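Task 17 of the worksheet. Students: predict the tertiary structure of the chain below and write it out as structure tokens. Keep your answer in the requested format; marks are given for formatting as well as content.
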Amino acid sequence: MKINKLFSLTAILVIAFMVSCKPGVKSSDEETGTEAVAEAVAEVVAEPNTLTDKEVEEGWILMFDGESPGKWRGYGKDHFPEAWEIADGTMHMLGSGRGEAGAADGGDIIYDQKFSNFDLKLEWKISEGGNSGILYLGQENTELGPIWKTAPEMQVLDNERHPDANAGKDGNRQAGSLYDLIPAVPQNAKPAGEWNSVEVKVYKGSVWHYMNGEVVLEYHLWTPEWNELVAGSKFPELNPDWANVASEGFIGLQDHGDDVWYRSIKIKEL
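Model answer:
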């Protein structure tokens, strides 16, 4: 397993200063101070596509090592699509400019394992005017259509340029939102070309979206409120059974015809 750490001198100095300010840590106590600094450094986020020792102990699984597709494959396919490339430590969707119809060997990709209760973390950046999505609890039903016809979606979008940012209701198609259902509040997505850190947590039907360190929405599946919410969206026309999201499913990344990059994808089962 790939577990490396990359720390800047500035980061370590900041940590050392913070540790020195903790009660019980005296500047004259070099041994205690050194141990405390080492412990704090171990908690610093690892370089992209790696796990820290602490994450390994906690049971996190690295879903992408930055070098190969691993268990990722095309939706309804037995291989990793040619329209996706592994480059510079990312999974990069090579935009076709034609929307979801896209390239001949393109389409959404899924991780070849189902999850039910989990904590999913990853980073994304989008091209100018780009659109994509992170899907979860999805089913592989190619007769019904793309994975989004069975799966909730955390929206990935260039809010400044893509028209979808102003569609839907109250910003519920902007980045971080539960697509076409619940807007991300606060809306703290970074501009196109910059990395966003996101998290989706699912536990017994309760779902949280996090973006850039903040909880931006929370909801609960399979409730009367959920059914009412879905009824007011576009999904019932596309799949009358859409509200009955499965309790276990695939995690997917969307090909919407635009360049998008993903990295540091990791998951912990809850």
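Marker's comment: The first strand starts at residue 61 and ends at 62. Residues 1-44 form one domain.
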